[in-house]
Write a structure and sequence with these properties.
The chain has 159 residues and is mainly α. The chain has two helices and no strands.
């Protein structure tokens, strides 16, 4: 039998197995462990650690990029809000200016209309005065004729 079989049989026979049995197999296990470490280090551990580090850097870079983008978006939002407020202010001023111009134009048109109405009224009054004078003159001549006629009729009856 070999050494391992003897150790197993001895452990089973004694009733309690030792936790760590230091014997010749320990050096074989240590050698196997070191050999696997040297083989797996470049093949497994190093690529896995590099991939993990790249992933951490990518996540950190993405977080930094997201933070920078958030700051940029906030700055653009602030700039947009400022420009919007300025545009609203300009529009309000323009609307107010247009309203004042419309009021001025309306007042000028009203003044011109009143002046024209006053002119027409004055012209109409002058025409009425002229027509009244002509009618009075015409009636004055007729009054004299009618008075003469009435007087003649009264005098003929009286005689």
């Amino acid at each position: 039998m070999n050494v391992i079989d003897v150790a197993i049989v001895t452990a089973l026979a004694s009733g309690s197995a030792p936790v760590v049995d230091i014997d010749g197999t320990m050096w074989i296990q240590l050698g196997t462990f070191l050999l696997l470490m040297f083989i797996l280090q470049p093949l497994l551990f190093k690529p896995w650690l590099e991939t993990r580090q790249r992933r951490i850097e990518a996540i950190d870079g993405a977080l930094e990029s997201a933070t920078a983008l958030r700051e940029r978006a906030d700055a653009v939002q602030h700039q947009y809000d400022t420009q919007k407020a300025e545009a609203e202010r300009v529009a309000l001023e323009l609307r107010s200016h247009e309203r004042r111009e419309a009021e001025t134009t309306r007042q000028q048109a009203l003044t011109e209309a009143r002046a024209e109405a006053a002119h027409h009224l004055e012209t109409a009054r002058e025409q009425i005065a002229k027509q009244g004078a002509v009618a009075r003159e015409s009636l004055q001549r007729r009054v004299d004729e009618l008075a003469q006629h009435v007087a003649n009729k009264i005098l003929r009856r009286a005689s």
